Amino acid sequence: MVKRAVRLRLLDITTQVAAIEAAIAGLSLADFRSDWLRRSAVERGIEVISEASRHIDPALTVRHPEVPWRRVADIGNWLRHAYEQVDPALIWFIVIDEFPALKAAIADMLAATPED
Length: 116
Fold this sequence. Notes:
It contains six helices and no strands. It is an all-alpha fold. Helix 1 packs antiparallel against helix 3, helix 1 crosses helix 6 and helix 3 crosses helix 5. The longest helix is centred in the last third of the chain and has 25 residues. It is globular and about 40 Å long. The model has no long low-confidence stretch (mean pLDDT 93). This is DUF86 domain-containing protein. Keywords: Hydrolase, Nuclease, Nucleotide-binding, Phosphoprotein, Toxin-antitoxin system. One of its GO terms (molecular function) is nucleotide binding. It comes from Sandarakinorhabdus fusca.
């Protein structure tokens, strides 16, 4: 497997966050709960974010303690291995309440990471 640059991983996160936000735009939690396809797509996007976060240089993440980086990295494993326990309300909370800090941190990291 070819090693991807950190900047590409940051862009992966940015892309997934934007896609997830578009997927849930205008929905309520009840709507989200009842839409298996949309929930599955959002969960997959979070898995990608989780995996990409594992490849960000700790020198960048340490500058953003407001983001629970360990939990960001761990959620992918939880979605893959404890899928039967996934509560749509938790996924909703992550997107609504935790994405803003993640988005801001990633934007800052992108600004600090030179293009290759």
